[in-house]
Amino acid sequence: MPATAIAPLKIGNLTIDPPILQAPMAGFTNAAFRQIVREFGGAGLLATEMVNARGFVWLDEHEAEHPDRLWGVADEPRPLAVQIWDNDAATMAKVGARLVEEYGVSVVDINFGCPVRQVTEKAHSGSYLLREPQRMHAIISQLVQVCAPTPVTAKIRLGCHPKNINCDEIARVVEEAGAAALTVHGRTAADMFRGHADWDRISEIKAHLKNIPLIGNGDLDSPEKVVTAFEKYNVDAVMIARACLGRPWLFSQAAAALRGEPIPPEPTMVQQRDVMLHHYRLVVDRFGEEKATILMRKYACCYAQGKRGARHFRTHVAKVSTEAEFYAVVEEHFPLSPAD
Hints:
Family: Belongs to the dus family.
Distance between the termini: 30 Å
Number of helices: 13
Cofactor: FMN
GO molecular function: flavin adenine dinucleotide binding; tRNA binding; tRNA dihydrouridine synthase activity
InterPro entries: Aldolase_TIM, DUS-like_FMN-bd, DUS_fam, DusB-like, tRNA-dHydroUridine_Synthase_C, tRNA_hU_synthase_CS
Function: Catalyzes the synthesis of 5,6-dihydrouridine (D), a modified base found in the D-loop of most tRNAs, via the reduction of the C5-C6 double bond in target uridines.
């Protein structure tokens, strides 16, 4: 693919180049992970974990430390997006204003796509709101007003259920409310992460947008799939999610592919293990040994995924609670052979 084939992404007054975004993922995309992604390069826009707006307000009112999910945000390089969720427009606006004024974030993103029951059925937020377009409009429009000129974006799914796909209507609502970009995950909320993302359906949404860019998301687990997304589907940018958790170098590979350059090879198994240990040290520096070791269990499983012996490693690393135990399990059990 020629280097000139893919234009940078414009989100309001912000230029994202390359147009490859790192998805916000709860429990994973913290400052340590973002630092490692930056060290490899290739991601045009990074994002925090999603932040509970109501919880943020409660901490603020009680003069407590702001959420751990905002760790690093004030000081790390830009551009950077912070994703927030709730179902109350006033609460969301209050938090959006603080993120812009106090943290100086580049983008405020609204989560209308999370399918997890705790967010949807219990809190009536995330993808639950896809059934309430006018409420979405109110949330977006209030955020746009208080955050200006910082752009506000929205992330959605195709709908709540395969029998109730309303992404075209939602796309129009999102743009009319003033959002600067729309990201669409190619599954419904009921699908969770089962099956395959429907990129044809994502692509069809473009016709329902007048001026704002469309960002496609779902199943992008190789540089080749990223290139195909731009070549075959009508999207302005892509967002990489779960596939990057154990492969933070995926962005640099995808960016090279878009430029028409040779794709950097996968790091060796030893190099991948060393990246994971670097990640662990960053988390320990922030949270201390005990909490960091527990947090790192899930990351370690991601780094091992797809390798021969990954299940055996997961069994052992899931039990560690000290730094010594973590290093011992990695030394003895981390897979150093790719899967067949």
